[in-house]
Amino acid sequence: MKKALMSHSRTRRSSLTFSIPVIVFQLAAMEAVAQNDQRSDPGYAWVTAGLGLGTEGFAGVLGFDILNRQHLVSFRGLGLSEVFGDNFWDLGVLFGRARRSSRSLLAASAGLAIMGGETCISGCAVLHKRVSFPLGVRAAWHPASFLGLGIYGFANFNSVQSFAGGVVTIEIGHLH
Questions:
Q1: Which of 4, 35, 87, 92 has the greatest number of C-beta atoms within 10 Å?
Q2: Closest CA to 138 of 50, 56, 79
C-alpha cells in the first residue's frame, strides 16, 4: 500500500512537473498573439461633419478623429445658432473610449474646449472666450472602408450658457 501511494505521488509530481512548463508556454504564446494583434491594428483617422439641432437652434460640427485600439482622440469645432438670436461655439480636444466592430463604432469622450458666442436678450452681447468642458457620444455605421454615417450627441458645460444637441454625421477617411 505504501509503495502504491509513493508511486501515485511520483506520478502526480511528474505530471505536475510536466504540466507547469506546458501551461507557462501556452500563456506566453497567448500573450505573444495578443501583442501581435495589437501591433497589427493600424489605427484609424477620419474627418467628421454633421448638421442637426441643439438647445440654441441649429447645430453644426466639424472634427478630426483618431482611433488607436480603443482610444479615441477628437479635435472638434461646434457651433449653434438661432435664426435671430443667441449663437455659441466651441473648439475642443476630447479623449474617450470606443468600441468597434467590422462596420460600426460606438464611442464616448470628454475633454477641454474654448467656447464663445453671443447672447441676444435685449440687444446682443459678445461672450468672452472661456474654458469649458465638452462631452461627445457617437454611434456610426461604416458601409465602406472610407465612408461612415452616424449620429453624434454633444454637450458643453461652461460658466455662462451650457448647451447640448445632436447632429447627423458623415465620416470620411480610414475607417476600417
A1: 92
A2: 50
Count of CB atoms within 10 A of residue 157's CB? 14
Instruction: Break the chain into its structural domains and give their ranges.
Output: 1-40, 44-174
pLDDT of residue 2: 53
- Which class is 44-174 in CATH? mainly beta
Note the pLDDT of residue 34.
45
pLDDT band at 3 (very low <50, low <70, confident <90, very high): low
Q: Is the separation of the CB atoms in 95 and 110 below 8 Å?
A: yes
pLDDT band, very low/low/confident/very high, at 41 (cuts 50, 70, 90):
low
Q: Where are the beta strands (DSSP E) in the chain?
A: 44-54, 57-68, 71-81, 87-100, 104-120, 124-144, 147-157, 163-174
Q: What's the average model confidence in pLDDT over 55-72?
A: 96
